[in-house]
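HOLO CASE FILE
Compound: NAP
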Amino acid sequence: MGDKLRAAILGATGLVGQMFVKLLSEHPLFEISYLAASEKRVGKRYGDEVRWVLDGDVPEQVKELTLDSVDPDKIKNASVDVVFSALPSSVAGNIEIELAKKGLTVVSNASPLRLDPDIPLIIPEINWEHMKLLDVQRRRRGWSGAIVKNSNCTTAILVLSLKPLMDLAGLEEIYVTTMQAVSGAGYSGVPSVAIIDNIIPFIEKEEDKVVNESRKILGRLAGDHVVPADFKIYATTTRVPVIHGHLEVVYTRLRREVDIKDVVEAWSRFKGLPQEVGAWLAPKQPVIVRWEADRPQPRLDRDAELGMAVSVGRFEILENRLLRYVVLGHNLVRGAAGNTILIAELMAREGLL
Ligand SMILES: NC(=O)c1ccc[n+]([C@@H]2O[C@H](COP(=O)([O-])OP(=O)(O)OC[C@H]3O[C@@H](n4cnc5c(N)ncnc54)[C@H](OP(=O)(O)O)[C@@H]3O)[C@@H](O)[C@H]2O)c1
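Model generated. C-alpha cells follow.
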C-alpha cells in the first residue's frame, strides 16, 4: 500500500491515547506523526510527560516526540492523513468539528455527536454499511473532512455478542448488568480510595449510552438515516476494582426458539468485513466461546486476539427463549483505540482517507 499514512493522536497521554500509541507504533499502515495533550504539556517530550500504565515500556519511536497542542490550525498544518481523538468529551466536540471543517478525517472515541443521524457509529464487523452516512454528513454539513465515531466501550463489547444472536433469532429484550474496569474512567477517573475494596453501583450517563448506542449500531440503514433496532434494553452499570476489561451479564429474550448449539455456532462463526479483508487488527474470531464454568475472566481473557475479540461464557437457555450469558472485552482495545484503528484501516483500504 506504499508509504505509511500519517496519524495524529489527540489526548495521547491519556489511557486511550496510550493504547493508540502502543497499537499504532506496531501498525504496518500508520505512522504516528503528531501527538497532542493539554496545553501544560505542549513542547515537552512524550516520554517524560506520559504516565505509562500499559504493559511494557513507552515505544522507543515515540519517546522523543514533542507534544503539540490540539489547535485545529496546527493539526491541519501538520498534513496528517487521519486524526485519532481520545479527548475528554467536554473538549472534543468543538475541536473535532473544526478539524472536519478544515478537511481532516477524525475517528473519535469521545461521546459528542455519537447519536446524530449523520454520524456513523461503527463496529466494523457489525455495521460497516452505516459508513454511507458520510455522504449525508458531507451534504448536510458542508464539511470537506469527516467525523466517524466509536461507541462507548461497554456498548462495543455488548453488541459484538448480540449481533450473531440478532441474526440467528431476533432480539426481543435485553437486560444487562456490567462490571466495568477502572481504566474505563480515564487516568484520573476513579480515586483509589473510592474503588479499592469496593463496587460502585453507578456510572454517570453510562446506562443511557448503552441503551441508545446499542440500538443505533444494531439498527438498519434506511436511505439517509439509521432506524434504531426495536428491542427493549435495560442496563445497570457498575465500577469494580479491575484494571482493564469489562464483564457484562446479559439476559436476552430471543424472538424465536433456538437450541443452545445454534447459539454457540452463531457466535463461533460470526465474521465481518475486517476478517474478509484480513485487516491488521482484525481478530480471527471476533467472539470467542469459553466452555469453562468460571470463564471469561478479566485477567485471563481481556487480551484475547490482542484485545480485539470479546469472550462469551456461562451461556444457558433458561426458559421460553430466555438466554443468559456473560461477555467480556478489553475496554481500551475493542472498546476504544483498537476499534478506532480498525475503522481507519478499513477506511484507508476503501480510499476514504
Ligand atoms: N477509557 C476507556 O475505556 C474509554 C473507552 C471508550 C471511550 N473513551 C473516551 O475516550 C476519551 C479519552 O478517554 P481516556 O480514558 O483516555 O481519558 P484520560 O485518561 O482522562 O485522558 C484524557 C486525555 O485528554 C487530554 N486532555 C484533557 N483535557 C484537555 C484539553 N483541555 N485540551 C487538550 N487535551 C486535553 C489529556 O492530556 P493531559 O495528560 O495533558 O491532561 C489526556 O491526554 C474520552 O472521551 C472517553 O470518554 C474512553
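CASE NOTES: The two ends are 13 Å apart (CA to CA). The CA atoms of residues 82 and 291 lie 40 Å apart.
CLOSED: yes
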